[in-house]
Amino acid sequence: MYSTNYHRASSLEDAVKLLGEAEDGKVVSGGMTLIPAMKTRLAAPSDLIDLRHIADLKGIKVSSRDVTIGAGTTHAEVADSKELAAVCHSFCHMASQIGDPHVRHLGTLGGSIANNDPAADYPAALLALGATVVTNTREIAAEEFFTGLFETALEDGEIVTAVKFTAPTKCGYQKFRNPASRYAMTGVFVAQGDGGVKVGVTGAGDDGVFRSSEIEAALSSNFDASALDGLTVPSGNLMSDIHASAEYRANLIVVMAKRAVKMANGA
Predict the structure, then answer these.
(1) The pLDDT value given to residue 92
(2) In sequence order, which residues have a C-beta less than 8 Å from that of residue 47 and are 6 or more positions away?
(3) Which CATH code of 3.40.50.12230, 3.30.465.10, 3.40.1440.10, 3.40.309.10 fits the domain covering 58-264?
(4) Is the domain defined by 5-50 classed in CATH 3.30.43.10?
(5) Which residues pair with 47 in a beta bridge?
(6) Which has the closest alpha carbon to 257: 203, 181, 182, 206?
(7) Model-level pTM?
(8) DSSP secondary-structure letter at 226?
């Protein structure tokens, strides 16, 4: 048995202070990853700092095509946002496909990206959208934030407060879901905007989420699913597990990319 001290943070400043004072503190919001890890003794923090009641970490703001989403915003709130859907419907669609209703109403965007599960949905979207992750101390480009399996650029005492991005002209997301967990065995987010075409892939990489240069190159000259006919992506950096081989995932990347492009084009 071990004991854990629970703290209900009243503000972001309070949370940072409590985290700094803890011997081995962890912040928690929805708890969809941390609590199961604690139950199985994969995590045993000395202190839990609850962020759920910090209003400044919640909400979605859309100004023209500039989007800011608070880290404490739940997946269900992202999925149901009419304001966000008006400029980036596929981001809402993606959130609506996460887990089950229980997970969507408790899990938060900030918790998901801070954990950086290799099969999570948001990381692929943030890469494709050229998003920025905002913390209590700085802003980090998504390209630099996700550093490996369950690893991010977050430093000790640093807390994700929001993500922000400019909605692209077109975007789409499709994933091949594990039928039990609903995690992405392979998920692809495609986006076409002022910065060109970007493609984020989740659920397939040995080192976690990544961008597909092969698909980006093909779609840059023709943003249509037909541009991917006959395309192959290398399987050398993809994972093999009980669910699918690296070669199968390589094929899934192309298939999901085609479906995502069709969605982006309104098909």
Answers:
(1) 98
(2) 4, 5, 6, 7, 18, 19, 22, 23, 24, 25, 26
(3) 3.30.465.10
(4) yes
(5) 5, 25
(6) 203
(7) 0.95
(8) G
Q: How confident is the model at residue 42 (pLDDT cuts 50, 70, 90)?
A: confident
Query: Is there a contact between 109 and 73 (Cβ–Cβ < 8 Å)?
Result: yes
- pLDDT on residue 36: 87
CA atoms of 216 and 257, how far apart (whole Å): 10
CA dihedral 164→19→111→128, nearest 10 degrees, is 40
| Range(s) of the chain covered by CATH 3.30.43.10 | 5-50
User: Residue 149 CA to chain centroid, in angstroms?
Assistant: 13
Rg (CA), the chain: 18
* Residue 198 and residue 216 in contact, taking contact as beta carbons nearer than 8 Å: yes
Length of the chain: 267
DSSP summary character for residue 191: E
Residue intervals of the chain classified under CATH 3.30.465.10 are 58-264
**CA 162/CA 59 separation, integer angstroms:** 9
